[in-house]
Amino acid sequence: MSRTTLLALAAVPALAVSLASPALADDETPHARVVTAESPVRSVGANQTETVTVTCPRGTFAVSGGWLVSSANIDVTGNRAVSDRRWSIRFENEANQSGRVQAFARCAV
Questions:
Q1: In this structure, are residues 52 and 103 in contact, taking their beta carbons and an 8 Å threshold?
Q2: Tens digit of pLDDT for each residue in 26-40?
Q3: CB 17 within 8 A of CB 65
Q4: CB of 35 within 8 A of CB of 62?
Q5: Is the dihedral of CA 14, 16, 19, 25 positive or negative?
């Protein structure tokens, strides 16, 4: 038997499993409900830092975070969960003028 034939035969079981798995997952796996919590828009002064914390609704937990900034001169220097329901993002404004930021938390049930 040639090497090409052996490789082809070895791949067949993996193909069968991969074709069957998505159908089973769609029918039997419940999907988590995810909501987005957001902070008010905040001002960050020139050459200042600001930490913005978002709290998820009761009965949910923070799984990730995101942000919007008004300027490319505002960097995110921290992005993490600080408790089961709270997500914090630390912004650093490197510009000589103030800017605006907003933080988001993705919250799952």
A1: yes
A2: 556 667 799 999 999
A3: no
A4: no
A5: negative
Token pair 């991969």 is found at 18
Q: In what order do the strands lie in the sheet with 49-55?
A: 49-55, 86-93, 74-81
Sequence-distant contacts of 71-75: CB under 8 A, at least 24 apart? 71/95, 71/99, 73/99, 74/44, 74/99, 74/101
The DSSP result for 15-79, as a single string, is HHHHHHHHHHHHHHPPPPPEEEEEPPPEEE-TT-EEEEEEEPPTT-EEEEEEEEES-TTEEEEEE
Angle at 22 between CA 20 and CA 24, to 5 degrees: 70
Determine if the pTM surpasses 0.90: no
CA 105, CA 37: separation in Å to the nearest integer? 5
pLDDT tens-digit series, residues 46-62: 999 999 999 999 999 99
Tokens of residue 104, six digits: 């988001």
